[in-house]
Amino acid sequence: MDIPYEYTVVLPEGYKEGERYPVLFALHGKGSNERDLLGLAEPLKDEFILIGIRGDLPMGQGYQYYELRSLGNPIRELFDRAVARLEAFIEYASEQYAVDPERRYVLGFSQGAILAMTLALTMGDRIKGIVALNGYVPDFVKTEYPLQSVTNMSIFISHGEFDPVFPIKIGHETAAYLNSLNDRVIFRTYPCGHEVTGANRQELLTFLREDSLNSHVKE
User: What's the number of CA atoms in the CB half-sphere (13 Å) around residue 151?
Assistant: First the structure.
């Protein structure tokens, strides 16, 4: 099959095909690239397979996964296409590398967070958990997409209290929506704008590390 996206993969030291590793798929924000969130997740590189996925639409010096009609209003055809292609990529990469299918995680920031939460809702138990930073779930996803259960999914979402792009009200609304589907959602706010603080980074890394270890023990 054609590879849906350009990507960068970081394999754990001592990587062995015969073993199975948790994997973290990283989705960047508008105008960035596939290496952006790999730096954020770098402390996990000895435990996880890290895969940064590059958006396939150029934007400035970087890339995006879909275009907007206006802020918060994705071009529906491009958004639908991105979701389908990302699902296909996750399955492709899971076959190419020694991925534990029970420990697949998606990390996203801004546009990447919007897609991470959408993938959670469309892929259901094919994903173990998500980390969504400063994003939201589009209304048309909630009402028009065929949604899968996220009851057993591990979900960490966070938002900047002074985010000028997606105001904090959106963060609280997103948390309330996901909490209506999963009563174990972790929601954190931080005194910052549209960005990731050091404290945010530390908490999300701890969440991913602990969740992947607990999942492994239960198998």
Answer: 1
